[in-house]
Amino acid sequence: MNTETYTLKHFNNTLDVFLSEEKLYTSKWFMDFGKFGSEVFNSKDEIVYHITKKFKFWKWKMVFTIKNENGILKELTSQNNKKTIYSIIIENQTYTIKIHYKKRFSIFKNGDKIAEIDASFTHKNFQKTIKLQLLDRKDLEISFLLFSCLKIGEVEERSKAIITSQKQLEINIEPWD
Question: For the chain, is the Cβ count within 10 Å smaller at the N or the C terminus?
Answer without folding.
Answer: N
